[in-house]
Specification:
Strand content: 25-35%
Number of helices: 6
Structural class: alpha/beta
CATH class of the largest domain: Alpha Beta
Number of domains: 2
Number of strands: 12
CATH superfamily of the largest domain: SPOUT methyltransferase, trefoil knot domain
CATH architecture of the largest domain: 3-Layer(aba) Sandwich
Helix content: 25-40%
């Protein structure tokens, strides 16, 4: 069943207007008409069975029916602290991270980040990334939308965000592997550098903030590949990819 995100809160029996992106997809791409079934969710963890009651151009109204609890969230709560990479790579990373069950995405700017953002650009990027994450939730069946934080420098993040759970940073020179960890708490913060990785000062600052260096194997992976591989390992060993 096609799934559409709609800002809530939602309630059974209500008639709601789908947001522009979702309405365009339903009316113009899928060419759905009155009476067609949909699933609608507001990011809180619940799905609603819905039926289209009106299509007027690009405006689509649906009536919400039965509420159903989703079971798509991992018991392992992962915060992905991702070095900002070029647009297509970053979009792809966030899309796949959402599919792989991350709870929070915190984009960070580092000394080797090719991308540079002023305040206005950062707000625009955050909104764009949230759209990528919402679309990924619609596709993969998640009913909780991962939080996408505003991009900040890595040093600002390390200075302001309190440690919760285990902190890990990917480093090709780390003595131990990610898969070699004996066990994990249910909260993990995973730091991955951008193109070019983290510099020595940033890696040292991360370690002082409680991040344990781990490696993925003998090869150096691209930033977007590293995110997918690391998240897959975490979810396969301690999450819900079983």
């Amino acid at each position: 069943m096609n799934r559409i995100f709609c800002d809530g809160p939602l309630a059974s029996g209500a008639e709601v207007l789908l947001p522009p992106a979702g309405a365009y997809h339903v009316a113009r791409v899928l060419r759905m008409r009155e009476g067609a079934p949909l699933a609608v969710f507001d990011g809180s963890g619940q799905d609603f069975r819905a039926e289209i009651v009106r299509v007027a151009g690009d405006a689509v109204t649906v009536r919400l029916g039965e509420q159903t609890a989703a079971a798509t969230e991992s018991p392992l709560r992962i915060t992905l602290l991702q070095g900002v990479s070029r647009s297509e790579r970053m979009d792809w990373t966030l899309q796949k991270a959402t599919e792989l069950g991350v709870a929070t995405i915190a984009p960070v700017l580092t000394s080797r980040s090719v991308v540079r953002l002023d305040e206005k650009q950062a707000q625009k990027k955050q909104a764009h990334w949230r759209g990528i994450v919402i679309a990924a939730c619609e596709q993969c069946g998640r009913s909780k939308v991962p939080q996408v934080a505003a991009p900040v420098t890595l040093r600002d993040h390390l200075a302001t965000v309190r440690k919760e759970g285990l902190r890990l940073v990917l480093s090709p020179s780390a003595p131990g592997s990610l898969a070699g960890l004996a066990s994990l708490p249910n909260k993990v913060e995973l730091l991955i550098g951008p193109e070019g990785g983290l510099d020595d000062d940033e890696l040292l600052a991360a370690q002082k903030a409680g991040f344990m260096p781990v490696r993925l194997g003998p090869r150096v992976l691209r930033t977007e590949t590293a995110a997918v591989v690391a998240l897959t390992v975490l979810q396969a060993l301690w999450g819900d990819l079983q």
